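[Meeting: bench + compute handoff]

Bench side (C.D.) handed over the final construct sequence. Compute side (W.E.) agreed to return the predicted structure before the next meeting so the bench team could plan truncations. Sequence as handed over:
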Amino acid sequence: MARQVTGAARRVADAAEVLRDEKFNARRVELAEAALETLGELGFARTSLREIAQNSAFTHGVFHYYFSDKLDLICCCVRHYKAKCVTRYDDVVATATSRDELTEGFLAKLAATLQNEARMHRLWYDLRSQAMFERRFARMYSRSTRAWKR
C-alpha cells in the first residue's frame, strides 16, 4: 500500500513539474514575441534588454529572470520564429499536386513574407552577420543550415 501511495505521489510531483516547465516555456515564448518587435525595429546592435522591456508590457527584471542574457533571449526568439515560420508552408505541402505547384506555392509564401515581414527578414540578415562574432549564433546558424541541407 505504501508503494502505491509513493507511486501516486511521484506521478503527481512529475505532473506538477511538467506543468511548471510548460508555464515557464510559455512565458519565454511570450517574452520572445515581445522582443522580436523591438529587435525587428532597432536591429541587434541597438537593442538591449532594457530597450526591449521599455517597448513591451514586461519589466526588465522579468527578462533577466527568464533569460541569462540578451543572446539567450535572441536564441529563443530565433527558435520560436523559425518554428512558427515552417508551419506557414504546411498548407502548400498538403495541397500541392505537382512539383510545379509546390514550387509556386513556396515562392508565393516567400514573396508574401518578404512583403509583410520585411523587418524580420532584415533582422535575420543582421543576426547572420552577428554570427561571425558571437559563438552561440554561429552554432545556431550552422545547426539550422545542416538541417535544411538534409
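W.E. noted at the follow-up: The chain has one domain: 2-149. C.D. will use this when planning the next construct.
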